[in-house]
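Moderator note: this is an archived Q&A kept for reference. The question asked for a predicted structure of one protein chain; the sequence and the answer are reproduced below.
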Amino acid sequence: METDKIFPNNWKEIVQGKKVIFYNTSVGNILSGRKKHIEKMQWVFSVFNEHPEVVLWWRPHPLELSTIQSMLPELEEQYKEIRRQYQEKNVGILDESTDLNRAIAVSDAYYGDWSSVVQLVTVVGKPVLYENDNILEWHKDLFFNVVDFVCINQIVWFLSSTMNILFAMNLDTFELVETIKIPYGNTLGKYMSYRIANIENYLVLIPGCGKWIIRFDLKEHKFEQLEIGNYGVSIKFGAYFVWNEFIYMLPAFESRIIKYDVFHNKIVCEKQFEDILFLDTNIDVVGSNIYAVEVGKNYIFKYDIQNDLCEKIQVSVEDIQLFAVKKIKDLFILIIANKNEILLWNERENKVWKLDGLPKEYSVKDRPFCDFVEYKQDIYFFPEQSDRVFKFNKDRMVLEQYQEIATKKEDEIYFSRAKNIGNKILAFNCWNNQWLIVDPQENTVNRYDIILDQKRQDEITKYSIFDTDEKSDKHRKVWEEDKDFYSLHNYIKDISRIKTTEQKMEKKESIGERIHKLITSDIIVT
């Protein structure tokens, strides 16, 4: 390294005219991920080999190798080998120095482990994508990740968790007939709207992480919004109930219940609580009473919408953590969180017993079921994490397996939403990116891919995670890696095509700012 330069000339030639992505690997993630983390690093290098339009600036933690040698000696040779291949194949720059400021200053974006380095990167306004060790592939096809839908005259209107777009699909052909960009929030903002409801000629988009209730006029094809809060990282409202021309929005991470007047686009009532409530999306409504559970607690939340009264019904079993509730006659079906168990509870007699039928090997990690759908005398349990759909007969009080699904990989989601549509059940299978139609009368299950013409696909895939609205642009650009729009491939593509922004220096500069200016000026070719 030349003593009068901040970095060698060959490095300067490598980064000149290209976007630089700072790849940071930490000791903590090596120790927790072990072999999986090293395999992830190897995959990352292979991805960057496919993208010569950007430069990978890898800066392993200075103590990374010595930590592996002392604490994970069985992985030392594998780690050394990927390091050797990285250099031999000229994948990118290997920064073995202790100078963290240089990597931050020269780079245009950050990818890698969660660490204190992220705070420094975000302070200077550079985007961040967290590395996910579980991802060793990406979806080249468009995955819709449907979070909610309504069906009107054989048209399914649906929302995606990853695209701030209102989709319309013909249920007879499964062809997308409309893709309408929602004019509020980031185009690829996650969970901007989380639920969708229909009252007469209006669709109402219920906010997730976004800050608006959005009304869409089906006749005029016109959006209107009602601002109700701020952007967030948590879902605001998870469940809702339609009562005449009103929609009751129940909190998923909020301290209020909202009563929204659809026709006048206004909030007519807010029920405030002292604490934030975490009500699950699986609720039940009997008459004018809404039944819900607060995730992880052992009571049922009852809300009388006619009299605006709330009540907490304590379940007699103290050592349980509830996930969802369903009321049948005098009984409550209680779904237990993180436990392979479903309970039946008679409130009047204060008796609890276990409902048989769930096999011991049935996975119940996190959310065991995404939705319960009633059809005549049966209730269909659609799994979120597990591999079987179950059916519960209300007359015989028997739970039995209805359908087995192909085995999936860990942490993948099966179903995200399921609802009645006439005399059938429509469900979305996230894992296969398919719609499922269950016909209980014929006892048939059919699967359908969404048909998307090339023009619409091109319109959607041109969107970037950096497409932001004016206000949300002030927020930190921090995302977590997934297999879809927030994949490493798409992140590289989006970084490579954004314009370089000049860093505004204040008159009184810190040491870090002076280093930043010195480094960036050194790589400019005159």
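Archived answer notes: The radius of gyration is 26 Å.
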